[in-house]
Amino acid sequence: MDEPGSGASLREVEVARNALRSRFVAIVFLLAGVFLLAGTCVASGPGGLSLAPAALAAPKAAAAPVAVGDRLGAVSSFSQGYRCLPYTSFSIPKGTQARALVMHLDGYAVTYTARPSHRGLEMLSYPGSINVSNGASSWRVPPPADPNDEYFELGALCAIQVMPRMPPELLAEGYWGGAHCCYGPTIYQYSTAAGGYRVVEDLTKPHVGDGLHWDPNGGFQPVKIRGEVLLESSDGAFAYAFGCYACTPAPTRLFTVASGRLLDVTTSYPAVIRSEAAGAWKGAVQSMASAQGAGLVEGPLAEWAADSCELGEGAQMWRTLEQLQAQGRLSAAESQSFNNKEPFPAQLKAFLLKNGYCKGQL
Questions:
Q1: Which residues make Cβ contacts (< 8 Å) with residue 348, sequence separation at least 6?
Q2: Structural domain count of the chain
């Protein structure tokens, strides 16, 4: 058996893709001839509108994270952690019939065994066989219900230790290998009552889990925030909604597993949301600073608007959008949009409400 890498290494291919996307957006803004005034995000337009809403002027103190359900337990000295196999370890030598990978976390061994995928890229197929053991006991992890694709390959495998001396939660993802698409995650939790692993969420089929704010283009990845390991994704509904894929950033979503369910706990981490909102506003200001970049403003404004509503600041956000519209700062984007047929604020409002944002605030 192979034990590739150590620590919390994540799938390198997805990281590289995200880095390339970030560089592309930065290059677009650079070519647009964007300049910030005095190194800040403040710009004044017609009528004296300040492009730095008070809600974003200075970070507010973050609220303490909410401990959800059975995640943290009562052992104060215990530190949650996770480990992921690196994507580069998922290859399988040509002619090899099967390969087993193993990783260790807090006394538990997680073993993944699979044959080559049918895509001809010498990668391990998904699903394979997953087994968890601690030397004294062993548990076979149930496969996804029906990924229904012979070209599915292993895209990620992570173990997450959320309780001391308990078998870890597992994140296993299949990958189709298309452009911006697609990951099929399955999330598992050990059940003491059942004496084995159970499926918390099976998202291996397209359009399953549409009620979740997650991104099938990127799947999930563990992150540790203020001592708790969460599953991070982004809201896939934003892809191409207000521009090209790279031009439309999506709000971050944070999830936890509690009582056998996958729960969205993003709003329990306002500091994360506020930081992202500030970055999105900065991108919007950069776009509006030049005629060339003004056509790219809808994407970052959409992310900023969603984050603002998650912070309970939807009313102030909307007043700012109405001022921008009245001053004509959104007209360039509206005239260049390949997808939008009406003024941006109206479209954005309908989009946000449809996708569960800003209810009771607009």
A1: 242, 298, 301, 302, 305, 321
A2: 2
